[in-house]
Amino acid sequence: MPNFFYKTLYFESFTYVTDTTPQLLTGKLEVLFNEKQGWFKSPNLKGEFLEYPAIFSITPKRWLVQIRGGEEREPAKLSGIISSLNTTQTKIDIVVKPNAVYRLLFFVCLPFAVFIIIKSLLTMEFHFSLLGPWPFVFGLFFLFISAKNAATKLRNNFEKYLNITPVDIKNGQVNNE
User: Fold this and answer.
1) Residue 150 in contact with residue 59, Cβ under 8 Å?
2) Pick from 156, 153, 172, 174: which is nearest to 164 by CA?
3) What is the tens place of the pLDDT at every residue in 83-111?
4) Integer Cα distance of 128 and 48 in angstroms
5) Distance (Å, whole) CA 52 – CA 43
6) Cis omega (within 30 of 0) for bond into 166
7) 108-140: per-residue pLDDT in tens?
8) Hey, what domains does the chain have and what are their CATH numbers?
9) What residues contact residue 83 under an 8 Å CB cut-off, 6+ apart?
């Protein structure tokens, strides 16, 4: 269970193998990155090559929550590396991270939530008031779900755009999940 929390709040990595050459895959990403017109156009992705043509970064084009300040303004970020397995197959390794604000707020609210739960259990007084301390407890759940949703939605849009599914690579062999 702690691994689930770690993956949700910090990062999660995936590997893909596709029957496309690296040049075609890079071309498809270039089309995505150069398409600046149309805020409501699908897919909900924007990005850039950090080191052409192998390393790229993708973020959502639009989102419901506005995060202000700091370097990370998007709710999630996907970073990837493209490498060639052979002449017809390409391997893509990605890391999906939710914004650090989710992690920060989660760990700020956590001590308050634990204190409130322990105090309520010891005194057997459960005050459900909107102005009381319970928003910290429910805020933890909301932050956790928001971080997971932002990262998962970004990864799903990326997979849908490239028409790929994650694979499990063990002992140098590709095993489909």
Assistant:
1) no
2) 156
3) 988 888 899 999 998 887 777 777 777 77
4) 47
5) 22
6) no
7) 777 777 777 777 777 776 665 544 566 666 777
8) 2-169 (3.30.530)
9) 22, 54, 90, 91, 92, 93
